[in-house]
Amino acid sequence: MPRARTPEERSADPAAIQMLKLAEESGLSTAFSRADTMSPCPIGADGLCCKNCFMGPCRVVKEGQVGVCGATVETIVARNFARAVAAGAAAHSDHGRDMAFTLKAAATVKGSDYKVRDPYKLYSMAETLGVPVDGRSVEEIASDVADIAIAQFGQQTGEVAYIKRAPAKRQKLWRELNYVPRGIDREVVDVLHRTHMGDDQEPDHILDAAIRCALSDGWAGSMLATDISDVLFGTPSPLVGQANLGVLKHDEVNIVVHGHEPTLSEMILAATGDPELLEYASSKGAKGINLAGICCTSNETLVRQGVPSAGNFLHQELAILTGAVEAMVVDVQCIMQALVPLSEKFHTEVITTSPKVKISGATHIEFDEHHAMQIARQIVRRAIDNFANRGETHIPDVSSDLVAGFSHEYVNYALGGVLRGSFRPLNDAIAAGRIRGVVANIGCNNPRVTQDWQHRYLVTEFLKNDVLVVQTGCGAIASAKEGYLLGEAALEYAGPGLREVCEAVGMPPVLHMGSCVDNSRILTVLSQMASEGGLGDDISDIPAVGMAPEWMSEKAMAIATYAAASGAYVIMGTTNPVKGSEEVSRLISEGWRDKFGGRLEFITDPDEILQNTLAHIDERREALKLPKYDASKWGKSGDARMLELVELPFAERQAALYGEMV
After folding, report:
1. DSSP-assigned states of every residue in 460-526
2. Number of domains into which the chain is organized
């Protein structure tokens, strides 16, 4: 049995450390303690265990050993990889399907609780999907857009429509190599079929199917989910929020939404402001109703409505440990079964809401978009009723301010305004060397490594090296907790060139772009940068790297695969699920680089991640014949007052900038 780590070894977050100490004192288990007592299977961790039929499971660990059916190491590892991609693509894309049905209800159901909040985003979707808009009502357009979006899932032939958003050169490459997805569900089924016992046995061919499946997620399912969420709930633009467990309130009803879908959480948010429910909460002794989020449901409501985030994936149990959560309302994905037995030690009610997710012991209130507000009010009322059952609370006094909501539309606007919106200033800053390159630092937490530490370490080093960081998902919340999502963070952490850009534009050095499904926004940004010119004509030309240093989810495998197939160099940390096969490792690295100009590598050492990232960015710069990165050229321009403030301690600088009390 491995050694139990201290709370400080389990998390880099001071709020989490407080709650982990409380858990130890109370004799309560968490994902962190369970990770310490349960060693991962070394055979399965390397991808060497095949359980795709019931002649096994077969553990192929010796030189030349094969499974009962004769499957080789290469075949087994490739099949396991492809199945993980299919599961991840299915989860994210199914999110898109649900959003499409909600859009249909908003367009066609009289008195629907949903409506189109961003008609301009709807018109953009209509243009891509071939839906006419002239002389038609918003509802008519939305209905047709929803129908075509829903059809993308069951489509059997042809191409998914959003593929045309990729750079022209990338589209041509995918078509020549037969990687363009035909339909979302078809590609998921294709992978599951060919990885069944007795089917596809050539590793490269298996991986081809995984690529097509992943692309059906990134350039269809996830992209549809993001667009429809924007249509229904508003396209994000920068707003102020807060993150960490300190956002919970001692004297208010605390409702935490957790999961990945915004449909119910948006209605719960509306219900928390209902005067009747606020009066009801007051009658129970509460001073208000406080909504906070965990994981990507948190990100969805944060980037659009400013709803505070109680934390990322590994904070879900810690929120309950505070004793201050009346209801934890969950939908889909990343929800630990351990929440229910833990909640039984406190007064928290865990409420499942998705027809896809039930947990034994939890209250199930199934969500229906046709009765959304009614269900939301029911949930809020239950939470209010539970307030009187609250016992002793332990809310850490730890939270950080943040600025989130950087959609690609807003970035385009911020760089040029309404009339001259363009990615040209960003491209020019990279070409000049003020910005060395771009990193998309995304992904999960994993309790087998110190929570948030790798996110924090890598982001700090990238900023120091003038690398602009964009983030989604739990990685974005990690940076929010650290204070990187503030404009002042550029003065504290960024190199001289990146600091100048942040000062000029008025933006943080780390841009929060949304939930993990919103990695499609990053694809769109990269595509627009390639189309803008000056940095090549394809995603593979841009000095950019994608990574998930603390990943744990099959969704991360799908994201990594579609990003690599789109031309990005992608690095995954924590663990290496293809370690057991040198051939598969070569295929997804060197093989994909030859095919796509992008590649996927699993690197568990954060220093090696940093070195490889900077080396790739510099290689791309050299290939584009851009000036060699030289930090000494920058930092001599900009607001003189800003440059003077750089030398001040952070708290004094905030006071000088904003007139706050020190």
Report:
1. HHHHHTTEEEEE-HHHHHHHHHHTTTSTHHHHHH--HHHHHHHHHHT--SEEE--SGGGHHHHHHHH
2. 3
